[in-house]
Amino acid sequence: MDLQATLDRISREVRPLLSEGQVAAYIPELAKVPREQFAMAVTTLDGQVYRTGCADQPFSIQSISKLFAVTRAFQLHGDDLWKRMGREPSGTPFNSLVQLEYERGKPRNPLINAGALVVTDILCGSFDPVEAEVVAFMRRLCGNESISYDVDVAQSELATAARNRALANLIKSFGNLDHPTETVIRAYVRQCAIAMSAVDLSRAICFLAHRGTQPFTGEVILDGSSARRLSALMLTCGTYDAAGDFAYRVGLPAKSGVGGGIVAHVPGEMGICVWSPGLSESGNSLAGWRALELFTTYTSRSIF
Ligand code: GLU
Q1: Can you tell me the distance from the alpha carbon of 186 to that of 259, in angstroms, rounded to the nearest whole number?
Q2: Mutate to test the pocket of ligand 1, among 29, 157, 201 (most ligand atoms within 8 A of CB)
Q3: Which residues does ligand 1 sit against, CB inside 6 Å?
Q4: C-alpha span between 40 and 277 (Å, rounded)
Q5: pTM for the complete prediction?
Q6: In the chain, pLDDT over 90 holds for what percent of residues?
Q7: Catalytic entry in 188, 231, 280, 285
Q8: Mind listing the pLDDT tens digit for each residue in 159-176?
Q9: Residue nearest atom 4 of ligand 1, based on CA coordinates
């Protein structure tokens, strides 16, 4: 299989989609990102990197950070995590409040905002500041010391985070948030504002494709069973309210963010990241989703 030729073909084929979709505008700083951009990177477990488009350009990873934050929390607390959040798809938008009220402050899963806020709260018990720990973790995973969070994006979200504050306060009212709401929110928006390239992320995700051990450094991030379990969460909860359709069309564990990035992996083979800022109605990158669908079709890859 010629991966480079496959990526180049995909890049050509998704081009008509780049003028469709909407850039996330509820975070004012993200609304400034030009829509017609596309990047795709694949890192194989033997360290080969294939790329197309602006694959070295950092973008706002947003909710993709939730996957790495929960990995860190899972490392520290294992199954105790599930006392404070569930492992079920929510079936509601990523920032929905309704379900949280019914379910008495216990978020459905760690990959929606409510669950990620609880994960941040858990990490606040071990690290100060949490965002520095998540940044350090990302740097280690992809071997890029220059990774950081974008101060302007973080500030922009902090100034408009009324809904996330509402979620955090509701969770706190049910006794499921230990730290002050504002401490958790500040760490959360900074973690979401981490900027990374498609190449960085395709490398960072490889530990999940490699039974929990980062293949390039040999660092054991998770044991094999935990890595498989997190991948299962990605499949069922990682692409907002469209995880069923994503499993149907793409067939890989993945996590998306409103910055337009999607990370995915092929177990035993490779880490993948796509980026294109125009989002579909489900909040997933329009061209990125299509690129992954074409990739698994052309390469006959799927976990099924
Ligand atoms: N920082 C964003 C928020 O909390 C992340 C959302 C996302 O990427 O899904 O609204």
Answers
A1: 18
A2: 157
A3: 62-63, 94-95, 113, 157, 164, 192, 257-258
A4: 12
A5: 0.97
A6: 97
A7: 188
A8: 999 999 999 999 999 999
A9: 113
